[in-house]
Amino acid sequence: MSKGKILIVMSAADVWRRTDGSDYPTGYWAEELAAPYERFVQAGYTVDFASPGGVLQPLDKYSADPEIAGPEAPRWVELAHQALQEFGPLLRLDEIDIDNYAAVVLPGGHGPVVDLYQDADLGRLLTAADAGGTVIGAVCHGPAALLSAVDAEGEWLFAGREMTAFTDEEEQMFGTAEGAPWLLASTLREKGAKHSGGPAYQVYNVQDGNLFTGQNPASSAPMADAMIAALAR
User: Fold this and answer.
1) Where are the domains of the chain?
2) Any idea where the DJ-1/PfpI domain is (predicted)?
């Protein structure tokens, strides 16, 4: 019997428009989707997948490259593909009832800085989730999606909260800082988040109440483990 349901919210973006007008191909980052999925399923939860319009985002090809994403990259790619294939058509964000879920997970890839950060349906979902004490997890570029949660006056729900996200240093090291319309960690701080970061590409996680965040792909599984521990309390 399932302990409950976990919602993984994916971006629907496949390109990231740069400041010079060029398009950078993007998609979901395999480890950030597959590692939490694996951890939650092993812990006895059922996982649903949703996105804006129910669009299935492609895989970020860099997340399949062991030289970039680490030696486990092929396993994460296979697991993510299998999980998405078995689930079938993604749910639409505008049809989600957050009361049906024990937790919501926001993985990265650059997509969240393209669409999720300003998605009104996600904003309403996260606002309801936070108000109800639902566990929220966001990793790497996933915390960009938290920016969608603003009230009628434009105030950001997560201002003042402690969190981490893909750092500006990591963006520079990855080669995508120059030409980026905005940098995630700097923007989170400008909006009022208490953002902190650890060494580049090393595991770093932050918890603030029901909000769990991870800095980079390596932080995905530890974030899920912390969420599962919180749900068990």
Assistant:
1) 5-232
2) 31-228
